[in-house]
Amino acid sequence: MPSLERDIIMALRQVYDPEIPVNIYDLGLIYEIKVDEGHNVFIQMTLTAPNCPMADYVVDQVKTAIEDVPGVVTATIELVFEPVWDKSRMSEEALVELGLDED
């Protein structure tokens, strides 16, 4: 994985869902990360619920976090609801933190 993408993921891990104490990356809300040759970043993401009242806040936080990464020129965020998010997209760490692991 290129270092810029790794830095972007680290930045995304600093953005938390306002209702769940887990970062959006480990929650599985990030569906796609693309970085073009000009270091413009495209993120496709979702939310845990389509009617989230904090949607604009979360998207703004994601955009700011990515654009603060050294080397990133711009960030474009696309909010999608297909496929529908479910807990299977969460990292093992997020499942454990929320007590949802099945051990």
Could you explain how this protein is built, in words?
With 103 residues, the protein is an alpha+beta fold. The chain has one domain: GMP Synthetase, Chain A, domain 3 (2-Layer Sandwich). It is 32% helix and 17% strand. It is built from four helices and three strands. The protein has helices at 3-12, 24-27, 55-67, 92-97; strands at residues 30-35, 40-45, 74-79. A three-stranded mixed β-sheet has the order 1-2-3. It starts with a helix and ends in a 6-residue tail after the last helix.
Key structural traits:
single chain, 103 residues, alpha+beta, GMP Synthetase, Chain A, domain 3, three-stranded mixed beta sheet, globular
Task: Please describe the topology of this protein.
Elements: H1 3-12, H2 24-27, E1 30-35, E2 40-45, H3 55-67, E3 74-79, H4 92-97
Parallel strand pairs: 2-3
Antiparallel strand pairs: 1-2
Q: Quick recap of the structure?
A:
This protein is of the alpha+beta class and 103 residues long. It has helices at 3-12, 24-27, 55-67, 92-97, and strands at 30-35, 40-45, 74-79.
Radius of gyration, rounded?
14 Å
Mean pLDDT: 93
Note the run of SSEs as H and E.
Answer: HHEEHEH
Total helical segments: 4
Detail the poorly predicted runs: none
Named at the architecture level, the CATH assignment is 2-Layer Sandwich
Shape: globular
- The fraction of residues assigned to DSSP E strands is 15-25%
Which strand order do you get reading across the main beta sheet? 1-2-3
N- to C-terminal distance? 30 Å
Count of discrete structural domains: 1
Output the structural class.
alpha+beta
- Please give the CATH class: Alpha Beta
Quaternary state reads: single chain
Helix content: 25-40%
Within the CATH hierarchy, at the fold level, what is the topology? GMP Synthetase, Chain A, domain 3
Query: How many DSSP E strands?
Result: 3
The biggest beta sheet, please? 3 strands, mixed
The CATH homologous superfamily is called Fe-S cluster assembly (FSCA)
